[in-house]
Amino acid sequence: KPVWGLPQLCRAGGLPHHPDAALFFPPLRRLILFKGARYYVLAQGGLQVEPYYPRSLQDWGGIPEEVSGALPRPDGSIIFFRDDR
C-alpha cells in the first residue's frame, strides 16, 4: 500500500545517504538497509533507525562490504550480491 508523505530525504531519521541495498528480513519483521560496511535496522512503523544501529556487516558473517543487492529465499536464507557476483 502507498506510504503517504514520501519521498523523504534519507538523512531523515538517521537513514544512510544512497543505501546500497534494502531487504525485508522476516525473522525481525524489519526493513534492513545496507551501506558500505554497515547495516541499519528500521523501526517498526516508520522510517527511523532502531537504537544501537548502524552496526558492522561482520555481525552477518561473510557478507562482503558494499552489498549491491539482497534477495530472501523461501528456505529463510538470503542471497547477497556485490557488483555482478
Q: Domains counted in the coordinates: how many?
A: 1
Mean pLDDT: 81
Helix amount: under 10%
Count the DSSP helices.
0
Tally of strands = 6
Largest sheet: 4 strands, antiparallel
Question: What form results from the Cα inertia axes?
Answer: globular
Task: Report the span from N to C terminus.
Answer: 32 Å
Structural class: mainly beta
Strand arrangement in the largest pleated sheet? 1-2-3-4
Detail the poorly predicted runs.
none
Helix and strand topology:
Layout (H helix, E strand, L loop, with lengths): L20 E5 L4 E6 L2 E4 L13 E2 L12 E4 L5 E4 L4
Protein name: Matrix metalloproteinase 28
InterPro entries: Hemopexin-like_dom_sf, Hemopexin-like_repeat
What does this protein structure show overall?
The chain is globular, with a radius of gyration of 13 Å. A hairpin with a 5-residue loop joins strand 5 and strand 6 (78-81). By secondary structure, the protein is mainly β. It starts with 20 loop residues before the first strand and ends with a strand. It has one domain (21-81). The mean pLDDT is 81. The chain is built from no helices and six strands. It has a four-stranded antiparallel beta sheet with strand order 1-2-3-4, with no helix packed on it. Strands 5-6 form a two-stranded antiparallel sheet. It is 0% helix and 29% strand.
List the keywords.
single chain; 85 residues; two-stranded antiparallel ribbon; 4-stranded antiparallel sheet; 6 strands; mainly beta
